[in-house]
Amino acid sequence: MNQESDDREFVLGIDLGGTFTKGGLVNQEGKIRDIHKEPTNAAAGRDHVLNGLFSSIDHFMEIAQERELKIRGIGIAVTGQVDFATGTLIGGLKDKIPGWIGTPVKRFVEERYGLLTLVENDGKAAAVGEHRFGAARGYSEVICLTIGTGVGGGIIIGGKLHRKWRGAAGELGHFSIDYRGRQCDCGNMGCLEVYVSAPRLVGGVLEAIRSGEHTVVSELVNGKLDAIDGEVLRRAAEMGDRVVLKVLDEMATYLGAALSNLVVALGPQVIVIGGGISQFGELLLEPTRKEIFRRTFGVCAEGLQLVQAALGEYSGAVGAAALVFDALGAKAGNMM
């Protein structure tokens, strides 16, 4: 493939999450362009979500046609547990997208567009993206967490994505850190995402406001508590708001405890934190880092790096596209 064709050939990478569906055209160097983002409206159910996915793909197809760009395949990162070979949803939270489990996303998309399509869990796709092109590039032992509405995860061992039995490895958000703790939506007790997530951060701040604690957050939203979101809380944290920083520190304690266990078990070189919560940067990472090193046995954490994702909210889309480029390369190699 010559350089001219490289510049005009892309894989469409899409991250279909419970809150937003977002993506763009990705080249072989992991650069994403023509990004597009719209609400998923997961509560409306499987058919609505699929139609939204098709609408997003159609949007990119129109762009490619107008600009005479070639889309060679489609990579889709999705919420839920995925059988990678068939691109079918085989597990996950039943109420997150009603009717989602059992959906053969790969088959539906390939039949509609006639392009090679690969489907992977969003946390795993994010790990691939960061390992290939982002904050974990050059490392062979990686843990990646995406923290937003929930907690997704992916593990790289020996430079390769760790899927294991039925592709279920890496569900780090459902790592139980308190066996007598709060009940998670999955039915288990004390899962990490119960204590570390965007809803938990907002909920913790709301609890403080309702108990009478003073916080600049109330002023930033003019007393409209339903307007509190991650961006508002990030601004408050950067202003040194004690309430937001206190909730962040509590989250860091839980996150550090969970990660210290993974460090002892897996011995990663780098841990990458992505998703919406990663926008807090060192305000979250520094207390988490201290907690990891305080708890980790012996030399297990020696040289460990804890860093913010470099690809931002598009780690999953870029990672899904990278998997398609890998498959296209293997297919071409088999034809030689």
In short:
By secondary structure, the chain is an alpha/beta fold. The chain has helices at residues 3-6, 46-67, 105-113, 122-133, 192-195, 198-210, 217-220, 230-238, 242-266, 282-295, 315-335; strands at 9-16, 20-26, 32-39, 70-78, 81-83, 88-91, 116-121, 142-147, 151-157, 160-161, 270-274, 305-308. Helix 4 (122-133) crosses helix 11 (315-335), helix 6 packs antiparallel against helix 9 and helix 9 (242-266) crosses helix 10.
Structure description:
Helices cover 41% and strands 21% of the residues. By secondary structure, it is of the alpha/beta class. The protein has 2 domains: 3-122 and 314-335, Nucleotidyltransferase, domain 5; 135-309, Nucleotidyltransferase, domain 5 (2-Layer Sandwich), CATH 3.30.420. Strands 3-2-1-4-7 form a 5-stranded mixed β-sheet, sandwiched between helices. A 5-stranded mixed β-sheet has the order 10-9-8-11-12. Strand 11 (270-274), helix 10 and strand 12 (305-308) form a beta-alpha-beta unit. Residues 1-5 and 332-336 have low confidence and may be disordered.
Question: Which tags fit this structure?
Answer:
five-stranded mixed beta sheet, Nucleotidyltransferase, domain 5, disordered N terminus, 41% helix, 11 helices, 2 domains, alpha/beta, 336 residues, 12 strands
- Overall 3D form: globular
* Total beta strands: 12
CATH topology of the largest domain: Nucleotidyltransferase, domain 5
Oligomer state equals single chain
What is the CA-based Rg, rounded?
A: 20 Å
Q: Going across the major beta sheet, what is the strand order?
A: 3-2-1-4-7
Helical stretch count? 11
Low-confidence stretches: 1-5, 332-336
Main beta sheet, described?
Answer: 5 strands, mixed
What proportion of the residues form beta strands (DSSP E)? 15-25%
Averaged pLDDT: 91
Order of helices and strands: HEEEHEEEHEHEEEHHHHHEHEH
Distance between the termini: 13 Å
Number of domains: 2
Structure class: alpha/beta
Helix content: 40-55%
Assigned CATH superfamily of the largest domain: ATPase, nucleotide binding domain
* CATH architecture annotation name of the largest domain: 2-Layer Sandwich
CATH class of the largest domain: Alpha Beta
